[in-house]
Amino acid sequence: MISLSAVSRHFGTGPSRVAAVDQVDLNIPGGEIFGVIGYSGAGKSTLIRLLNGLERPTAGRVIVNGTDIGAASERALRQVRPKIGMIFQHFNLLWSRSVRGNIALPMEIAGLPKDEIRRRTEELIGLVGLEGRGDHWPSQLSGGQKQRVGIARALANQPDVLLCDEATSALDPETTDQILDLLAGINRRLGLTIVLITHEMHVVRRICSSVAVMEAGRVIETGPVAQVFTAPREPVTQRFIGQIPAPEPKSLSIRLPDEAAQRLLAIAASPDLGLSLKNLTREGNGFRGEVLIRPLALADGVAQLRAAGIDVSEG
C-alpha cells in the first residue's frame, strides 16, 4: 500500500519558490498497476522520486508499505530501498558490465552469496525474455532489450514496489507494447505494485487499472482508468483523450429472456458504458441481437449484462 497525504515538494525560496508537487493526496492499493499521467512539468517525476526517498517532501507524509519515507533516516532508507525497484527512460545500464553483470549489481551491493546471485540472475534473465544474451554488452542490445535488463535489475532484490519513470517513451510503438505486456505479466506473476509515470495515453490504457492526472504539481483527477477516460472532468484529461482517435466499439452477441429486457434497456441508458443496441430480434420467449460497447468499459459492461441474466459472447 502506498499513501500520500497532503504531500508537497518545493524548490527554491521566496518569490522564486516552485511547488513541483503541491498538496497531493493519493492511495495506491497493493498489487495494482497505477498510472500517473501529465504533460511535461506537471510534477510526475518529482512525485515518483518522493516514493523512494530520492526527494524528501517539504510537507505531508509519504507512506510506502508502512514506512514513512519522508521521515526515515538515511540508514532506514537504505534498508527500505531494496524493496522499491525503479526503471528509467534511458535504461541507466553500466556499459562496462554485461547483461548478467548489470542484473547482478544490486545483489552484489546487498552482499548476497555468490551462488544465490548466479541463480537469481539466471532466473531473472529468463523472466524478462533475454535467454542466450547473458554475456552480451549493452552496446549489443536493442532499446527494448536494454529496458528488459533494466527491469530485471530492478527486480533483483525482490521488491514489493516497482517505479517506472517514462519507461517506454524512448521505445518504438511495437517495443513499447512488448515492454508493457512484460510489466503486466510480472504484476500478475509476482503481485508487485507498479507505479507508472508517463505522458502517453496508450501506456495507461493498455495496462493500468487506475490513473491520476497531474497538472502544475497537483493531482486534478483520479480513479479507475475506464471511469476517468470515458467521462473526463478536467480540461487536461480531455486534451489527453482528444490526442488519440476513438477506438472502435466492441461488438457483443447477446441472448436474453423477456424478463431481462427492461434490465437491458436500463444498462443501455448508462452513459459510462457507451452501450448501444443493434439488430435486436425476437427469438422464442426472449430476444437475441448485438450490442456495441466502448472498449475501456468492456469488462464492466459484460459483468453488468451477465448480472442482469443476459447471455454474452464476443460478436
UniProtKB/TrEMBL annotation:
The keyword Signal does not apply. One of its GO terms (molecular function) is ATP binding. Belongs to the ABC transporter superfamily. It comes from Falsigemmobacter faecalis. It holds the Pfam family ABC_tran. It comes from the Bacteria. Residues 2-241 form the ABC transporter domain. This is Cell division ATP-binding protein FtsE. The lineage of its organism: Bacteria, Pseudomonadati, Pseudomonadota, Alphaproteobacteria, Rhodobacterales. InterPro entries: AAA+_ATPase, ABC_transporter-like_ATP-bd, ABC_transporter-like_CS, MetN_ABC, MetN_ABC_transporter-like, P-loop_NTPase.
